[in-house]
Amino acid sequence: MLPIPAFGAARAAAAAGVRTPGLSLRLQQPLQQQQPLQQPLLQQQQQQLAAAALSCALPRASALCFSTAAASSSSSSSSSSSLSSSISSSSKFSRHSVEGRYAHALFAASSAAGNVEQVQQELQLLLQLLQQSRDFAAFAAAAGLAADTKQAVLQQLAAAAKLSKTSSNFLFAAAANKRLQNLKNIIAAFLELYRHHKRQLQCTITSAKTPGDP
């Protein structure tokens, strides 16, 4: 009778209905040891990222919200009730893209609430946070961050920046749907939609002289 190879012993024993507890224990042990070690490390990294995002974003948000409030009090709060505005055909954001859909939904919500101007200013604030804080930008781009962790950070951020309910709900929905990594492009699409609504043209002026020089 030919000898059974060592790696086939467990299979042969299983087919014969014989248990091999020593061998099966050795096979299962590595799998049981790997899983518990990674989860605490992942949670610790998530907490560190969230804390870093808050420590950098909250002071900036608190400072910027005063300038936003001052600008909103001096500007007109009138907005059109029409919701038929759309991103122009020359835009790089399609209406059916993620950015386009979120921008249109937010514009419709802010138009219905009558606070388009306020939401536009608050999105400018968020854009500044993304540009000025690497930690907040990394927080927004972290797709693997737990949803409840992101919600907790955004709730504190919304309170510190005194964001409107419209902007706050937009952020919470984006986080719940794992679209915060698209936040910068969604804001850009909304601002383009806002300029189209206000019939404003964005342009860049290049001059060889400093403005004001004779």
From TrEMBL:
Stretches that traverse the bilayer: none
Just give the chief location class: membrane
InterPro entries in the cross-refs: ATP_synth_OSCP/delta_N_sf, ATPase_OSCP/dsu
Annotated localization? Membrane
Query: What's the domain of life for this entry?
Result: Eukaryota
Coiled-coil spans in chain: none
GO cellular component annotations, sorted alphabetically? membrane
Which keywords are on file for this protein? ATP synthesis, Hydrogen ion transport, Ion transport, Membrane, Thylakoid, Transport
Q: Which Pfam families match?
A: OSCP
GO molecular function list = proton-transporting ATP synthase activity, rotational mechanism
Family, as annotated = Belongs to the ATPase delta chain family.
* PANTHER family in the record: ATP SYNTHASE DELTA CHAIN (PTHR11910)
Query: What name has this protein been given in UniProt?
Result: ATP synthase delta chain
Taxonomic source organism: Eimeria tenella
